[in-house]
What we know:
The chain is an alpha+beta fold.
Amino acid sequence: xxxxxGAGHPxxxxxxxxxxxxxxxxxAETVSxxxxxxxxxxxxxxxxxxxxxxxxxxxxxxxxxLTRQVQEPPRSxxxxxxxxxxARDYAGWVAAGAAEVxxxxxxTDPLAAMWAWGEDQHARFWVRRMLFETLxxxxxxxxxxxxxxxxxxxxxxxxxxxxxVNLPFAGLFAPGVTALRGDGETLAFRCTxxxxxxxxxxRVRLDRDGFRLLPRTGGDAASRQDTAAVGGRxxxxxxxxxxxxxxxxxxxxxxxxxxVLDRWFSHTAF
Length: 270
């Protein structure tokens, strides 16, 4: 499946690095003291213990990849986790790992060439990916313990971009993506909030051989005849793409095109 080429990283590397540390500590603080057996509604069949173990393990795995600067797909995901025996200590385990994560990211050259499953074959791919894995799961944890959530609009918009740029390559672990096709229908996702994300827009076309993220051309979005369009705050769009919200919720401004949207979301969950 094709995608647009040369997708950029509009945020400075230091922004990603600092945000990973901030989101990691916020995640750990959220789950600290909470019942590890509590369900996580946005991650069916997972408990807080499962979610916390996943976040800590994934970060350590990404750090291993970055430290080794792997040049081909790893044959094993085995890595020394140092996982505590008691799930009640998982929050402290994640928090303790934040310093190691920060050290690895400080020592990483973002432009170092290395294997990645997405479009960008540089170390920065993994740092950007780590940020949004951690951020979305932080929201999962906050919702699970009944806390209010928030996402900085600029980060959220960048997360939407990161998701859509890499989605065509996600068939390795999300096989439904490879079956997402159409007859030229276009979907648009538009940010409507303030705070640096206003006017951000992504358009996707579904073709018979797959789907592609179209180049940004500017112009008047209202004059386009997209098959379906979803407008909303950047944070809500990010959670929508990750399956944490529904386009039918009143926070979104949706044009006609429900069947196309249903097809999109039924194939893009991961």
